[in-house]
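Anyone opening a protein record will find just a pair of labelled lines. A complete record is shown below as an example:
=====
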Amino acid sequence: MLLTHARVETALTLRHGEQVLLTLLIPLALLVGLTLLDVLPLGAPDGAARVDWVAPRILALAVMSSAFTGQAIALGFDRRYGVLKRLAATALPRWLLVAGRLLAALVVVVLQVAVLGGVAALLGWSPSASGLLAGAVLLVVGTLAFGALGVLLGGALRAEAVLALANIVWFVLLLAGGILLAPAALPGVVGDLVRLLPSGALAEGLRAALTDGAFTPAPVLVLLAWAVAAGALATRTTRLA
């Protein structure tokens, strides 16, 4: 039941043009553009390849796009059209409805990593082999954290409000949440606060793992805290309609 539900959710995501634009085409465009054009201060040391610093941040953006923004919007409109009510009336338990969505989000993230990683490799990206396991852990935990936040947002507000707010949050986190601009490039305490955001924690954790081959527990702990807090709150606020 879980695999069937996850397969259906994955197929619906991949067939939706706007979802593909958000989860794949925009990250691809940013990956190529930021690698080839020196338009933003990435905080990379002199002599370092830009793609080695851009690729981990784009992977963080891909996770945020699919697990948070796409998840929230899809859930909001499923509630609006009564999809959740119909599913809840079947033999599917509620925990499986959530688990199926999270599993589908993980599948989409795997596809994103494969495509984006392949393009980054063509651009000269060579991630640190010693950091691949840490990177995989961060991707999974990041998907859970952003997925919980997506369910929290999509399960509590009207579909139109979810659509607007999810896109606004996506843009804010992209520009000032530690993805395009590294926390080190932000002034003083702002950079420290950005590291406590799920976007900043995931981007910095992936950069440290895939660029430096280093694993630091702080980003994982931040992401786990967001996942637990958002998940606990979502169980109290999520509505079927």
In short: The CA atoms of residues 18 and 70 lie 9 Å apart. The chain has a mean pLDDT of 88. The first helix runs from residue 2 to 15.
